[in-house]
Here is the input.
Amino acid sequence: MSQPALRRDGRDEWTDERGWSHRVADVGSVDLHYVTAGDPDAPAVVLLHGFPECWWAWRRHVDRLAESFHVVVPDLRGYNRSEKPHEVEQYRLEAVTGDVAGLIRTAGHETAHVVGHDWGGVVAFGTALQRPEVLDRLVVLNAPYPGAFEEQFTLRQALRSWYAGFFQLPAIPERVLSADDFALLERLFREDPVPGTYTDEDIAMYRRAWGREGAIRAMLDYYRAFGRENVQRLWRNRWNAGRRVRAETLLLWGERDRALGGHIPNVIQRELDDVTVEHYPDASHWLHAEFPERTGADIEAFISR
Here is the structure.
C-alpha cells in the first residue's frame, strides 16, 4: 500500500486509496495525525490505539463503523505522524486526555464515543474521569484502570509487567527496541497473538512508524511519565479523587493476555458505575486484531444503543 505524503512536505490533508481522509491538525497543544471516514454529521466514535501500534491498529474496524458513525482514528501524541514532544511530562495522562477532547472538537463534534485498546484504553478511561463532558459511551479492550492500584498491581501482576520497569531506564530501552531493525517489536507481533494475526503488510507499516525520528523514545515516555509523574498520585487516588466513570462502559477482555492478569476485569467492574464485560476466551492481549469481526460487532452494537 503506497504511503501518503508527510506533513513536512507541506500537506495537512490527503486521501488514501481506501477513500479515508488523513489530516494533521493542532488539537490544542500538539499536532496530531488522524484518519476520518463516514458522514461528518453522524455521531462520532474515536478509536485509540495502544503500544506499539498506531492508527493502523483499527484498519479492520473503520469501514464497518463508518456506515453509521463519523470515525476518527488518531496517532496518539508521539506515535507515527503525530507530534513528538521531548519532555517526559508531556506524556502524562492529563496531557493525552486533553488531546482526545481537542480532537473531538477539531473533528467537528461536542461529544463522541471513545474506544481504546492497551494504552489507548488507559487514555479512554482517563478521558472518562477527567473530561466526561466530551464522552458519550466508553469501550475499553484489555487495558488497566488508572486507579485502584492496590487491587490491580499485585505481586503477580508486577512480574507480568516487568517490562514497564525496564522502560523507566534512560536510553537503553530505545537501543534494545530499535536493534536489528526493530526485531524485538516484530517478534512481539509474530509470537504473542494468534499466529498469522499480523501480516507482513502490518509489520511493514509499523516498522515505518517506529522508524520515524523520535518515535521510539516518545512511545516509551508514556511508561516513564506514568512511572515518574502519576504512580504516587494514582496510588493515593489523588489523580481521580472524587471522580468515577459515569459513562456506560463496555469492557472487552482477551483471557489469554500475557501482560495483564485476569483479575483486572473484576477490579474494573467494582470501580465503574455501569460496565458490561465480554470475555474472549481464545483471545490474547491483541483481541482487536485477532477477532476484528467480533470486536467490531460488539463495539457497533454497544455504541448504537
In short: Residues 215-235 form the longest helix (21 residues). The first strand starts at residue 13 and ends at 15. Residues 1-10 have pLDDT under 50 and may be disordered. The domain at 8-303 is CATH 3.40.50.1820 (Rossmann fold).
